[in-house]
Amino acid sequence: MKYSKKIAILLFVAGCFLSAKAQNFKATDPIAVNQKIKKGVLPNGMTYYIYPTEVNKNTASYYIIQNVGSILENDQQKGLAHFLEHMAFNGTKNFEGKGILNTLQKQGAVFGKNINAYTSTDETVYNLDNIPSKDGGVVDTCLLVLHDWSNFLSLTNEEIDAERGVITEEWRTRQNARARIYNQLASSYYNNSLYTDRMPIGDMDIVKNFKYQVLKDFYKDWYRPDLQAIAIVGDINADEIEAKIKKLFADIPTPVNPKKRFEIAIPEKTEPTFKLALDKEISASSISFMIRHETEKATNTYAELEKTTQRNIAFSILNNRLAELAQKQECPFKGAQIGYQNYTRLNDIWILSVSPKPGKQAEAFVMAMNEWVRAYKFGFSKGEIERAATETISSYENYLDKLNEISHKQVIGMVKEDYLKHEVLADPVAEFEMTKSILKNINTKMLQEQISKLYTQKNRVVTVTGVDGEENLMQEKAFDIIQKAENDASLQPYVDTFEGKTLLGNLKINPGKIVSEKKETAIDATTFVLSNGVKVHYKFADKNKKQVNLEAESKGGISLYKFDDIPSAYRSTSLAMMSGIGELSNVDLEKVLKGKIANSSVTINSLKEEVSGSANVKDIETMMELVHLRFVQPRFDAQMYALLKQRLQNSLKNRENDINAKMQDSLSNIVYGKNNPKIRPLNQKYIDDLSFDKMKSIYLDRFADVSNFEFYIVGDVTPEVLKPLLEKYIASIKGIKRNEKFKVDVPEWTSKKIDRDVFIKMETPKSAVNIAFMKDYAYSQKNRILNSFLGDILTLRYTESLREKEGGTYGAQVKGSLVKDPITKGGIQITFDCDADKVEHLLPIVYQEIDKIKKGEIAAEDIEKTRKSYLKSREDSKNFNSYSMSLISNYFEEGYNMNDPKNFEDIVNSITSKEIQEFANSLLDKADSMEIVFKPLK
């Protein structure tokens, strides 16, 4: 629905203290349509959307939205909507075999990143993201791909058979404990409707054995223009694109006597449903209480916006209350959320989700239910609504300031809502005016009435994901908790204890001075030296309008502390962030910051301590205040320390049945040794070694010397605005002018060559392969890029061999990296999941592909695809302020200029097959190696 729902930042609209200038609207007034989006329908029924934007210069994204999903399958087709999605990349009328991928990869596109698709129960969407748009031939190619995806898939028998294994491995990769739990609960969620038996991944017996014609029939029945929309978003000429669409897509025939595109409503149910689901690999419980409703048809009017606004206000405030409770040690849940959302095409749900602490399922459900009942019975305080109003207006204004920066994916999200759910593509300025009118008269009674309407007696479903060994919440107890909460006469209204606090409180600041300025003409930046010794490197950047980012770092980090203190060192900043800042608890801090678009955080990692911040320009002073307080008035709350330890204890318990955690722990023990003093896994000793006093003292030590930090500030802020803020908030922090470095103490592998099979009990048998090569290696820009080339070329090779040819894995992930600190090391890591019965067949292929590269058998096409990808990614990155931050940090910290072609473009363009071969041999010969394969324990 409406713009506010689509742009994500405006989900929770609230307020009542607005300007009297707000307009008056009638309930039937329509929400104005966004005129920037060109929309039309071709004679054959296909819908098209065109949205010109320069948010990513010289690129465009191309989507085809199919109003087709797994819900349309018959019993012999389960999984074929998703199968068909895969086949769209395996041959079309104008692109044989892997022609689509090969063609677009030559333009720098990456499969999985720029070229992808997804299938759900009700839709299938294909995308080509951020493809170069200034070459007319490339634009025509992308439109031709959409054209072929619409009606011209080849669906050859050979390609169908080749894809069966890939999809089976995708199922295997995704068939984890949560997926198995979902399968147990689906009949309750959907009241045994067709949705229960139409999960997109499908039935693997059908996937492996269906007859070719069955897939072709599904394609013929449902892939047709009256169920399709295409969307082109980017740096394009809308009129030219429209003309091309009308010409190119005209040959797609109008369907004759097409099957009706049906929609399924979940049947009504008077009696409540309860279901407990268990799985041996589930280690954390969860509770869900939902009430199904018929979907409210979009009217796209003021009245609908008013209703949604009132609901979102209430739910946002209620979720703030639940989040406050979760910050108390005695709270029985880790988190709880409540809301109202779309569920299927014809059904919405009111839903309360609770994540209990171990052994606290009933207590957690009681507390969450009480908060819900408290809200709809007693409503919300004036202060809560005021803060929500301030936050909402700020969010709207920030969004309107950045209308030209809406991402391609945000636009596509709006387009999908319009096409699939008939929700208007709203004009955000006009909607803001309507919202102000709504907020002018809002009150708690309205909010209570709106959310109470959603809490009905019919269609109630309670599901519990239980844990073996816990006292799991059962049906009788769950229904009793609901009934008692609804009838609890002892419940009292929420008390809002927050009173007019400010960020700085009574803190007095004595400003320092900027003692020197130096222009860095090579990168158009300025370095300010402050009176306390701090260096601030600044660069103006307005690719992201009215946005400012700050980063600061100092060397040292965890490396400076002994073994027993490592847990306290790692968690010290977590404690400080949980505790709030200055005179404010974290709860009060969040309230003070309502309506401000500003934040700051601190971290300590193995080699550095870091401060970061970001803000809208109008709130830059708030960001600077936060940064100042991180140094001069951090807060350490003993209750938050107890909560932190409790959370870690809960996490440790949750790892007991977590198969991924077991694998990670086994991997670490094999590679580094079980009791390596330089490795601190999360175990009981880790928690026991935590100390409140040590955490506090380590934090104060790491952030004691601001002069040892280098600051980087990038954004849409002028020196005239920034300099006084630097003098007041950064130069005023006392520095002790120590000169620290990190210590070099790197954990070694247990052996130069590690080769282990690890057998582990699994509910869904599979093998998980982990292969790595590591070696001390000279660091340079060219070596770093060569290492990345090696990893990405191997990714292309494994996609072709392991995935496409063998059907052995859904995908192999390869990462090539060369790091500088604490010592220079290079290497590659290869991971993938596969059928346990095929792993011994697939492993030699992994090494064969490496050996081919070492022998110089490298496809020129693979090099060009990788080269184009790197050059394209670099150009795309220049559209955002983050590039300028990388530019100045690399210039001052690493000593090279990203803008100088010799440091990237010239290297990428010059790389040859011979250089990659020589690098591979140099890096991998005599490198430390590991092959650790997890296999199912039979």
Automatic annotation (TrEMBL):
<dbReference type="Pfam" id="PF05193">
    <property type="entry name" value="Peptidase_M16_C"/>
</dbReference>
<dbReference type="InterPro" id="IPR001431">
    <property type="entry name" value="Pept_M16_Zn_BS"/>
</dbReference>
<dbReference type="InterPro" id="IPR011249">
    <property type="entry name" value="Metalloenz_LuxS/M16"/>
</dbReference>
<feature type="domain" description="Peptidase M16 C-terminal">
    <location>
        <begin position="210"/>
        <end position="389"/>
    </location>
</feature>
<protein>
    <submittedName>
        <fullName>Insulinase family protein</fullName>
    </submittedName>
</protein>
<dbReference type="InterPro" id="IPR011765">
    <property type="entry name" value="Pept_M16_N"/>
</dbReference>
<dbReference type="InterPro" id="IPR050626">
    <property type="entry name" value="Peptidase_M16"/>
</dbReference>
<keyword id="KW-0862">Zinc</keyword>
<keyword id="KW-0645">Protease</keyword>
<keyword id="KW-0479">Metal-binding</keyword>
<feature type="signal peptide">
    <location>
        <begin position="1"/>
        <end position="22"/>
    </location>
</feature>
<feature type="domain" description="Peptidase M16 N-terminal">
    <location>
        <begin position="56"/>
        <end position="191"/>
    </location>
</feature>
<comment type="similarity">
    <text>Belongs to the peptidase M16 family.</text>
</comment>
<keyword id="KW-0482">Metalloprotease</keyword>
<dbReference type="InterPro" id="IPR007863">
    <property type="entry name" value="Peptidase_M16_C"/>
</dbReference>
<keyword id="KW-0378">Hydrolase</keyword>
<dbReference type="Pfam" id="PF00675">
    <property type="entry name" value="Peptidase_M16"/>
</dbReference>
<feature type="domain" description="Peptidase M16 C-terminal">
    <location>
        <begin position="690"/>
        <end position="869"/>
    </location>
</feature>
<keyword id="KW-0732">Signal</keyword>
